[in-house]
């Protein structure tokens, strides 16, 4: 397929994005692409599979690509897998009348992604893919969870979503499986969230309790203990 200058620019932006999040155990799966179509050698530190080669593409990847191409907002996102420390993303790169849809699936460990998140206060600064062909992933990540468009959210809902993203970011930064969390780990996370003002927001205790898989009274107890300890100094 012949790509326009604009499409090539989209692709180069995507390559830059991939280079920021890829870990050593990454798989990048490209649908309807070949070395002739794209300079895929620029995607490093992961294996590259062509979804057209059925014998080399896992079924679950084909399903993810199908979901990506079928999603109205041109993007399908799977949340962080805390247990296995992986991040799964599927996205449609572009589509045109004379070319088939092109989908990308990324499976990578979360470590480099979290590093990138911590270096960027705003997710929008991380994903420089705000084009007609590639929806802005920074705003669509949370939207995909609820199937809502950003324009459908009220201001309070957007703030709530930002709080949830902050909670996820801090929990993931500890790099510990949920099942291996100790009480001190949870207390440390609550302390960090408290310092950053997360608990000043509505529903924050509920969201943190869900993220840490403990009861709301436990979170309130941590907060009171931490506030008592801080006031003693």
Structure report:
- This protein is of the alpha+beta class and 233 residues long.
- The radius of gyration is 20 Å and the shape is globular.
- The protein has two domains: 5-146, no CATH class; 154-231, no CATH class.
- Residues 20-57, 73-87 and 110-151 have low confidence and may be disordered.
- It is 47% helix and 17% strand.
- The chain has a five-stranded mixed β-sheet, with helices on both faces.
- Residues 11-116 form the YheO-like domain.
- InterPro entries: DauR-like, DauR-like_HTH, YheO.
Q: What descriptors fit this protein?
A:
DauR-like_HTH; DauR-like; 2 domains; alpha+beta; single chain; YheO; 233 residues
In total, the number of domains comes to 2
**Fraction of residues in helix:** 40-55%
How would you describe the shape? globular
Element order: H for helix, E for strand: HEEHEEEHHHHHHH
Strand count, sense and barrel status of the largest sheet are:
5 strands, mixed
Order of adjacent strands in the largest pleated sheet: 2-1-5-4-3
Class inferred from helices and paired strands = alpha+beta
**Number of DSSP strands?**
5
Domain Transcriptional regulator DauR-like HTH: 163-223
Domain YheO-like: 11-116
Summarize the structure.
The protein has 233 residues and is an alpha+beta fold. 47% of the residues lie in helices and 17% in strands.
Write the SSE topology:
Blueprint: H1 5-21, E1 26-30, E2 46-50, H2 59-70, E3 75-81, E4 86-96, E5 99-109, H3 111-119, H4 123-126, H5 137-146, H6 155-173, H7 183-195, H8 204-212, H9 216-231
Parallel strand pairs: 1-2
Antiparallel strand pairs: 1-5, 3-4, 4-5
């Amino acid at each position: 397929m012949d790509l326009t200058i604009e499409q090539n620019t989209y692709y180069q932006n995507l390559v830059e994005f991939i280079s920021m999040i890829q870990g050593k155990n990454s798989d990048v799966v490209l649908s309807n692409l070949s070395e002739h179509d794209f300079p895929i050698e620029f995607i490093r530190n992961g294996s590259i599979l062509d979804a057209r080669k059925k014998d080399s593409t896992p079924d679950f990847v084909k399903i993810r690509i199908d979901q990506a191409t079928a999603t109205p907002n041109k993007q399908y996102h799977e949340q962080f897998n805390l247990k296995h420390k992986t991040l799964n993303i599927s996205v449609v790169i572009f589509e045109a009348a004379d070319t088939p849809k092109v989908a990308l699936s990324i499976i990578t460990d979360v470590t480099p992604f979290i590093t990138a998140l911590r270096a960027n206060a705003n997710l929008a600064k991380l994903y420089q893919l705000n084009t007609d062909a590639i929806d802005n992933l920074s705003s669509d990540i949370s939207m995909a969870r609820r199937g809502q468009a950003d324009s459908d959210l009220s201001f309070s809902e957007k703030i709530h979503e930002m709080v949830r993203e902050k909670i996820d970011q801090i929990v993931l930064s500890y790099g510990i499986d949920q099942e291996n969390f100790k009480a001190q780990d949870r207390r440390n996370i609550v302390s960090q969230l408290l310092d950053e003002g997360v608990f000043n927001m509505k529903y924050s205790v509920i969201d943190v309790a869900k993220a840490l898989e403990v009861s709301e009274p436990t979170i309130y107890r941590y907060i009171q203990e931490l506030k008592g300890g801080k006031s003693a100094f």
